[in-house]
Specification:
Blueprint (H helix, E strand, L loop, with lengths): L19 H4 L11 H4 L6 H24 L9 E9 L2 E6 L3 E6 L3 E2 L9 E7 L2 E6 L1 H4 L17 E7 L2 E7 L1 E9 H5 L9 E7 L2 E6 L1 H12 L1
Parallel strand pairs: 2-11
Antiparallel strand pairs: 1-2, 1-9, 3-7, 4-5, 5-6, 7-8, 10-11
Protein name: Chemotaxis protein CheW
Main location: cytoplasm
InterPro entries: CheW, CheW-like_dom_sf, CheW-lke_dom
Length: 223
């Protein structure tokens, strides 16, 4: 609701969250021009985006605290991965290829589209961005049950593909985690499409995606 704040979620984001709902929203002076449309701040995409950033900061802080209590090892090198779910499969993508995690938006199909992976376009803060299906690109099972009673919030990942950002919808985002490079090096080899390896994380089997191959496939799907 405040256009001055930067709501991008990247691995080096250090901007403070602008709690505009406390200044010009329902908990402030109610001067926000979007209130007439949304009635309450919780219905606004800016509020949702701020909540997403806040939750991911908690994830990063928790990881930092875990590392702080770990035995001191100056040789540890980590890599940041965004972990998300499609169907029943958990996947990891390096944050250097990530622009933002955004609330789910309607996808508008395009007539006469040639690529099976191209879902259409989505409106991202006034700009139309191509939307691709990772399920199609990765040859995943489109089904997949969710545990009953689980609170799941689908998201859109905005990825920095060649030629511009691309949106991919996902079923759930776990957060950003710093993974020891030695764990990644020991990941099991996999013949799965655009995959660098498979590793165990938080009791799950995590498919670590090859971002270079994946971004290249995205670009081909748009041509």
């Amino acid at each position: 609701m405040s256009g001055s704040a930067d709501y991008n979620l990247t691995h080096d984001d250090a901007h403070a969250i602008d709690d505009c709902w406390n200044r010009i929203g329902v908990h402030g002076d109610k001067s926000c021009p979007l209130l007439a449309e949304h009635i309450h701040c919780r219905n606004c995409s800016v509020y949702s985006a701020a909540a997403t950033r806040l939750l991911d900061r908690y994830t990063l802080q928790r990881d930092d605290q875990d590392l702080a209590h770990a035995p001191l090892d100056t040789d540890i090198v980590t890599r940041s991965l965004l972990m998300f779910r499609l169907g029943e499969e958990w996947l990891g993508l390096t944050t250097r290829s990530l622009v933002e995690v955004a609330p789910l938006q309607p996808i508008h199909s395009l007539p006469h589209q040639r690529s099976r992976a191209l879902l259409g376009v989505a409106n991202v803060r006034g700009a139309l961005v191509a939307c691709l299906s990772l399920v199609e690109l990765l040859d995943l099972d489109p089904g997949g049950a969710v545990v009953a009673g689980a609170r799941v919030m689908p998201r859109m990942l905005i990825v920095a593909a060649q030629g511009g950002p691309v949106v991919v919808p996902v079923d759930e985002v776990d957060g950003i985690h710093a993974i020891d490079e030695r764990v990644l090096d020991a990941a099991s080899q996999s013949a799965a499409k655009y995959t660098r390896g498979v590793l165990k994380f938080k009791g799950r089997s995590l498919r670590w995606l090859d971002e270079e191959q994946l971004l290249s496939a995205m670009t081909r799907s748009l041509s």
